[in-house]
Amino acid sequence: QVQLVESGGGLVQAGGSLRLSCAASGTTLSTYAMAWFRQAPGKEREFVAVITWSGGRPSYAHSVKGRFTISRDIAKNMGHLQMNSLKPEDTAVYYCATRDVAASTYGYWGQGTQVTVSS
């Protein structure tokens, strides 16, 4: 079992920055990747970014590429999402999730952290 806890959300003006963190605990040795998803009111959850736990290899949704940076700190069992040049359309609840090596889906999810970008 893996437990994930996000932090770092908040209210920011358009053009501003936020850094989200995801603390992982429990059985993390089999973690293959950590990803961030987001869900805006009335919309489906969407992929934001992913990074492999051991080798990096970040990948981003087109809508955030060049503005967001995903990273992970293996020693601290933490992941981060640096969000720059925020736009009102980035407003959503942001979730981190992890996928095990043997899994095809993200089996562990955090509770989410609210990001609100005002215009």
Topology:
Blueprint: E1 2-7, E2 10-13, E3 18-26, E4 31-39, E5 46-52, E6 56-60, E7 68-73, E8 78-83, E9 92-100, E10 108-109, E11 113-118
Parallel strand pairs: 2-11
Antiparallel strand pairs: 1-3, 3-8, 4-5, 4-9, 5-6, 7-8, 9-10, 9-11
Contiguous uncertain segments of 5+ residues = none
Average pLDDT value?
Answer: 94
Distance separating the two termini: 40 Å
Q: What's the shape?
A: globular
How many extended strands?
11
Helix content: under 10%
Number of helices: 0
Order of helices and strands: EEEEEEEEEEE
Q: What structural category do the secondary elements indicate? A: mainly beta
Estimate what percentage of residues fall within beta strands.
over 45%
Compute the CA-based radius of gyration: 13 Å
Largest sheet: 7 strands, mixed
Question: In short, what is this structure?
Answer:
The protein has strands at 2-7, 10-13, 18-26, 31-39, 46-52, 56-60, 68-73, 78-83, 92-100, 108-109, 113-118. By secondary structure, it is mainly β.
Describe the structure.
The chain is mostly beta strands and 119 residues long. Helices cover 0% and strands 58% of the residues. It has no helices and eleven strands. The protein has strands at residues 2-7, 10-13, 18-26, 31-39, 46-52, 56-60, 68-73, 78-83, 92-100, 108-109, 113-118. Strands 2, 4, 5, 6, 9, 10 and 11 form a seven-stranded mixed beta sheet that branches. Strand 4 and strand 5 form a beta hairpin. The chain is globular. The mean pLDDT is 94.
